[in-house]
Amino acid sequence: MTAHPDGDDREVDFSQKLFGRPLRGAREDAPVSSETAGRSEVDVSDDVLTRSEALGALYAGLLGREPDECGFNGYMLAMRNGESLASIVKGMANSPEFLGRHGLVRVGAVELPDLTEIFPTKYVRRHGGRSIFNASQDDDFSWMLRMIDENRYYDHLGIWSPVIDRDKRITAAIAMGLGAESCLELGCFSGPVLSVLADHGVDVCGVELSHIAFILAFPNVLRKLKYGDLLDIAFDRTFDVFVGMDILEHLNPIELPKYVRRIRELIAPDGFALINSPMIGNDDVFGLAFDPYLPEWRQAEEDRFWRHMDCDAKGWPMHGHLVWASPRWWEKLFIEEGLVRDRRLERHVQLLLKDFFEQFPGRRSLFLLRHVDHEPDIAAVEKSLTARIGEALSAP
């Protein structure tokens, strides 16, 4: 079985992120002294960071002060007893001191109810420890979306990644390669892609429904984010590139044509849409990203979205997806609203990112869309994509 949609989260070496290199073979240190306790800078010329050096850097970076003797010795003892540096960082980041220093508000964990108990007749069977929801009526999608909204599903930490990682840089590179001087991203979360674009001089705007996104938003794009539904937000302009990465599948499939129509309206006449969604089954450009692993999908027509939703044990759609469909259905949806795939540019991107897509197949199901009457200079766009993606792939 292939990887499941949205399965592109990566663990990041925390010491690598903090210090630019791994914390390897940390030596045992003597109890804190006035010299080590006050050490807030780390000499990165050494190959190894001692525990005291790492802790000193954490105090300086997270709390903005020198270590206190009691806290420092407590952390040292905890690490000698097996507690990880990542756990120490997490504790510091959750402390009242850190939250107060950065003006943050603690958001309680979202406790999601068991939907299989609320609407048991709609869950037709179990599948590998999960539940299968049958949206036999159009209103069933509306009910599920209402449950998602009322229970603040997208405020549940861990749904989206706020990190500027290689994936986000590659997405930004594709947008710039398509000629983006302005860019609108739907479902931008805290704005990692937009932040990269803004740093390259692109005029950005983001639309987001998660409250937490605005707490975690990157400072350089915070004022560029709009809260609300794309259909309800007024814009006084169009954009060179529209970006929708792992977002359209979270919408009600019955209402999805309205959103695609709105996307088309917001794309400049010579602009593009960059769309990534988990498309189930074979495609002539990107091949097989996800196999139709439910028998109900294999038996259904590919020209329609599927009404059986893969859900977790509590009945919540996996990754929040309401749309499960084939590449053929997705393409037909866009064509009906006046947007067509540029297969030559798509094949070029697939070639440039072959190794990346092999590692993260969820990103392979990628559409590059344009207006029906837009005939781009393909050679020029291919050259631009090659340069921008090459920069992103060579970045550390």
TrEMBL record:
Pfam families: DUF4214, Methyltransf_23. Residues 56-100 form the DUF4214 domain. Residues 1-43 are annotated as: Disordered. Gene3D superfamilies: Vaccinia Virus protein VP39. InterPro entries: DUF4214 (IPR025282), SAM-dependent_MTases_sf (IPR029063). This is DUF4214 domain-containing protein. It comes from Methylosinus sporium.
